Amino acid sequence: MLQTAHPPLAKAPPLTTLPSAAPILSVEDLHAAYGQSEVLHGLNFQVAPGEIVAVMGRNGMGKTTLMKTLMGIVPVKAGSIRVDGTEIGALKSHARVAKGLAYVPQGRIIFSTMTVQENIETGLTVTGARKVPQDLYEMFPVLLEMKGRRGGNLSGGQQQQLAIARALASKPKVLLLDEPTEGIQPSIIREMGRTLKKIRDARGLSIVVSEQVLSFALDVADRVLVMENGEIVHESLRADIDEAQVARFLSV
Amino acid sequence: MFGDYSLGDLGAIFAMQGFAGLILFSVYVLMALGLAIIFGQMGVINMAHGEFMILGAYMTYLCSAFFQTYLPALFPAYFFLAMILAFCASGALGMLVEWALIRHLYKRPLDTLLATWGLSLILQQAYRSIFGAREVGVELPSWLIGSVQVTDSIEIPINGLFVMAVTTLITVGVALLIYRSRFGQQVRAVMANRPMAGAVGIDTEKIDRYTFGLGCGIAGVAGSAFTMIGSTGPTSGQLYIVDTFLIVVFGGAASLLGTIASAFSISQTQSTLEFFLSGSMAKVLTLLAVVGILMLRPQGLFTLKVRR
């Protein structure tokens, strides 16, 4: 199993898709806790530029906490988070966005009383831009159609697209998605997999996606991490993944 | 109670009381706007809001005294400067209070109630020590005194018209700021979901401070307007705070239009009934009506129709 010692050096060569590039996101010995109860017990992983990493695991294993800790919603207890070489573990959420992280939370959490366009514009805050870039609407044409509607009146799938567009508006280097397939119908899930890869290819950003649906993870990810009880217990490239083994981790 | 008046008299009474009610309405709207913005954004119930208003009133008083003594030539125009000064003073104090006190209590909403109540007592005593316990009045420039004769029995005071114009201007300004500007967009995002607003890159602490300052600043302008209808004392703000809370709740939280509609209905009912009954009976009837309506419609007058 992956433990704290020297994971990047010991494990990196077979696991990094782009060995030459420095990691865009690097997490070392990350601990996080709600009050006194520690939920993340020293995580280590790196994400290469342009890589899609799926974090898998059953409910309550710490996936969402990991996302919230990366985003600064749950405070870091110990360890380091670096984006493109810059330490961000002590920064507030908005400052992390400015450093290149963007977040699509579980349950999407769009601003339901604001219009679609206003929702996307909130993501522009750190860039200083005033107009929604045209390529966002090109990527999600349905949002252009609905740009005057209140976000709360969109369907689940449309809200998911809105949440992704809002995150992309801040021109991130790393996009964090927390269980994007939750409550979305299967046909749209496949569509979303394609969209995520398209976003990665078009913008060259890295994506960390937490997921319970194995087929979706295998569809989008270059590499899969499995979390259990706040630790990473399994890691493999998609090419040589042992599906049965990962499925065992996910079965209840 | 209407028996002793002819129909024409009643018409004139309703028109003039209605107009007096409009001045009250102006003060209420300005107070309630500030309170609603602060409550909607931060969930903080600002018990010291009345004292921020009175700070604006005292600024207006100081300004009028200063111009009378040193710049009598410019006295006719002092009221504009006084309102700007009132806004700045109350707004600055508001931002200071947010920084020193409120931001440490966001996770304990009930404690903010106590803390701001304590603040209101401190401010009242500070006013008493600085300005004295006696109520002070503001000297109005001559162009604001007098009234417009509309018909034989209906007169409309000029200062009332002025206050209403100012209120309209500020309300429209606030509406534009909240619904059209980038700042307002960020305010609404923080209102909707604070952690998420941070996670899309909005500096929520900065927005909180400015919003609190804005709400208090508007209360300061309300104080400036207030000097035209009442005299300013250390505890004058207390009289308005309860009514203002009532207006915010009655209007439906997070609805600018609801706040305005409820301020209008409450001030008009109050003002019209006051002519025929005693002031306290008028208040009792107004409160009873509000309580009755709130029991039937607990969400207030206006709400947004949206899935949450």
Instruction: Name the helicity range of chain B.
Output: over 70%
Element pattern of chain B in H and E: HHHHEEHHHHHHH
Oligomerization state of this entry?
A: heterodimer
Structural class of chain B: mainly alpha
The total count of helices of chain B amounts to: 11
Radius of gyration of chain A: 17 Å
Poorly predicted runs of chain A: 1-19
Beta-strand percentage range of chain B: under 5%
Order of helices and strands of chain A: HEEEHEEHEHHHHEHEHEEH
Strand order of the largest sheet of chain B: 1-2
Please give a handful of descriptors for the protein shown:
heterodimer, A: 252 residues, alpha/beta, 6-stranded mixed β-sheet, 4-stranded antiparallel β-sheet, 10 helices, 10 strands, disordered N terminus, B: 308 residues, mainly alpha, two-stranded antiparallel sheet, 11 helices
Would you mind describing this structure in some detail?
The complex is a heterodimer of chains A (252) and B (308). With 252 residues, chain A is of the alpha/beta class. The radius of gyration of chain A is 17 Å and the shape is globular. Mean pLDDT of chain A is 87; it is low at 1-19. In chain A, strands 6-7-8-3-9-10 form a six-stranded mixed beta sheet, sandwiched between helices. Chain A has helices at 7-15, 63-71, 93-99, 116-122, 134-139, 141-145, 156-168, 186-203, 214-220, 243-250, and strands spanning 25-34, 37-47, 52-56, 76-83, 86-87, 101-104, 174-178, 206-211, 223-228, 231-237. Helices cover 35% and strands 25% of the residues of chain A. In chain A, strand 1 (25-34) and strand 2 (37-47) form a beta hairpin. Chain A starts with 6 loop residues before the first helix and ends with a helix. Chain B has helices spanning 7-42, 49-70, 78-100, 109-131, 158-180, 182-192, 194-199, 204-226, 238-251, 256-276, 279-296; strands spanning 147-149, 155-157. The radius of gyration of chain B is 20 Å and the shape is globular. The mean pLDDT of chain B is 85. Chain B has 308 residues and is mainly α. In chain B, strands 1-2 form a two-stranded antiparallel ribbon. Chain B has one domain (25-242). Chain A binds chain B through residues 71-73, 92-94, 97-98, 102-103, 105, 109, 111-114, 118, 121-123, 125-126, 130, 150, 152-153, 166-167, 170, and chain B through 182, 185-186, 188-189, 192-193, 195-205, 254, 304, 306-308.
